Amino acid sequence: MPRSFKAALIIFSFTFFAFSSCQDHHWEPYSKVGPLPEPAKPFQGVIATGKVELADSLKSGDYKDWSLFIVVRPAEGASMFAAAKEIVSQFPMSFTVTDKHIMVGKPGENEKFVVEAVLDKDGNIDTQDEVIISGKAGDVVPVGGSDVLITLGNNK
User: Fold this and answer.
1) CATH topology of domain 46-152
2) How far is the C-alpha of 28 from the C-alpha of 35, rounded, in Å?
3) Is the Cβ–Cβ distance between 133 and 119 less than 8 Å?
4) What sections of the chain are H helices per DSSP?
5) How many CB atoms lie within 10 A of CB 112?
6) What's the CA gap between 134 and 28, in Å, rounded?
7) How many helices (H) and strands (E) would you count in the chain?
8) What is the rounded distance in angstroms from the CA atom of residue 44 to the CA atom of residue 77?
9) Is the peptide bond before 2 cis (omega within 30 degrees of 0)?
10) Computed from CA positions of residues 11, 17, 19, 20, in that sequence, does the dihedral angle turn out positive or negative?
11) Which residues pair with 71 in a beta bridge?
12) SS3 at position 17
């Protein structure tokens, strides 16, 4: 066996056994440590429910098969928290935004949200189509808020 190989083998063996065997003295039994903390439970439930209606100036339009987006944003911030998409059949339209529509994060216990609606002809909220009609609820909405009313075309 070449001398350099023996030296490398000795150094590897010393390093391996010296650093891999020290874990035993750090082990604590569960009886001393106590139970593991409960994992954080994900939010489950309703964020907001309500209805979307049209302003009087828009009621004569035909919006069948357009896309209606319900967007929920934190009252303190501009990032989108949750969004739902429905295909319009007629107005007024009811909506429910739940934990299934959350895009990022989870709501805080006392957090309040701005709820907006966007009516879009091409079905893609990211495109800047000329025909976009929007509106938002008059007040901020707490988690689980119900009877939220959004009037499209009455931008406040």
Assistant:
1) Immunoglobulin-like (2.60.40)
2) 12
3) yes
4) 3-20, 30-33
5) 15
6) 59
7) 2, 8
8) 22
9) no
10) positive
11) 83, 116
12) helix
For CATH 2.60.40, list the domain ranges present in the chain.
46-152
Alpha carbon of 53 to those of 102, 136, 138: distances in Å? Answer: 23, 11, 13
Terminal-residue alpha carbon distance, the chain:
85
Apex 103 CA angle, 99 and 107, nearest 5: 55
133 in helix, strand or coil? strand
- For the entire predicted model, the pTM comes to 0.70
Q: What are phi and psi of 120, to 5 degrees?
A: -130, 130
At 84-129, the pLDDT tens digits run: 999 999 999 999 999 999 888 888 778 899 999 999 888 777 776 6
